[in-house]
Amino acid sequence: MAGMTMTEKILARHGGKKSVRPGENVWVDVDVLMTHDVCGPGTIGIFHEKFGRNAKVWDGNKVVIVPDHYIFTADEKCHRNIQILRDFVREQGLKYYYDPDFVKNEPGMPNPYKDPTKTNYKGVCHKALPEEGHVRPGEILLGTDSHTCTAGAFGQFATGVGNTDAAFALGTGKTWLKVPPTMKFTFHGQIPAYLTAKDLILAVIGEIGVDGATYRTMYFAGEGISSLTLEDRMTLTNMAIEAGGKNGVCDVDEKTLQYVRKRSNVPHWQVERDDPDAQYIYEHEWDLGTLEPLVAKPHSPDNKDTAYNCRDVKLDRAYVGSCTGGKITDMIFAANILKGNRVKIETYVVPGSTEVHADMRRLNLRGVPKDNNEKSIEDVLLDAGCKLGPSGCAACLGGPSDTFGRLNNAEVCISTTNRNFPGRMGSTKSSVYLASPLTVAASALTGRITDPRDYVSAPIQTGTAGVM
Length: 468
Ligand code: SF4
Hints:
The protein has helices at 6-14, 40-51, 76-92, 125-131, 163-172, 197-208, 223-226, 230-238, 254-263, 322-325, 328-338, 354-362, 377-383, 437-446; strands spanning 25-29, 32-35, 63-65, 96-97, 140-143, 157-160, 174-178, 182-188, 217-221, 247-250, 282-287, 294-296, 304-306, 317-320, 346-349, 387-388, 412-415, 431-435.
């Protein structure tokens, strides 16, 4: 019998089977179910309707609720959603809820947290989940958000589900899955200083298209992936869904174990790896030495081109943020390019989580705790003229018209986010180019799409940022 992939092994074990094959349907036990302020209220409504008004969730220690999407807005419907989550958390006695405690039951724009270390609020769910210890190798994570696949960077099966599936899992702790076949993407060599994982995933999606991995596992392999930080690997798996992937995975290594051992709130988990004779439905290889900084042009993540080819594109705005590009390593990449310079266009920066925000104040440009006389990452970005907002999803998906950084007009924006469909970041008249934090920062300095090789000559150190 042929070997199995990591995903097949995880699904088999959680379904109480010795083995599974792609295409097979299997009932599996869910380790963690996550929901947020957009889909949480709908999920809770279905749960109450189908399981009863007095029903209890299957395991209160395995439900994680992270409000993150529409937090900093005066929109009352958004505030009502947060209240529904609060009521449910109280009703069920849930332990893992990250409340935006500064959102009071009163009209108007809430005052954001002053100190990111002194709020229960976290920010974007996909960043908060690993930070708060809810992500472990070999487990199954369901989330009511398509970018739940981000957690596959930690060697787990993580996928987005709709409100109905989430409500079913809330009541039973189970879900029914078809085992996806696996596509293997191998990167050879070490990551060059001018590339980040964003360039790698744009290369993949540009190669296979936005439906190229529909209901498949995307496995990112090779020493090129090992050379990435864990945070950068999250950028790869985050965007698996942009190619239609069911989930994305990376191998578990010392970097993964170090992170998870420090953070996990569960002591035991089981690492799974692909067997040497595991079967892949598709394989493609890249040499990192030959890859160039890339962008995805409007209006699709697979509309790939090189940053150099787009050098005549004039920009109105740059945006650094989201679960894809608002991690602390993304901030370090951007800050190293912006240091000592001034941005030429409006440049919005949104930390992916309050931990990222706190680290932007605590760390220097090399990703280690700063001395008293050193500038922090936040200092460097503010000195360069960036506008810094509180952590959250912000303009990544547009949101209400008062959302920080939202594209309300026909602006052309270069962004570290993951989607550039018409209207994704606000107005349907706007145009969004997706790029790495290096390319976004370099472009912010010139007002045109700029190849970061004009600014990066040596590897950018990120220290233990995002890990310790
Ligand atoms: S940051 Fe953007 S992509 Fe990520 S969860 Fe929020 S809205 Fe979705």
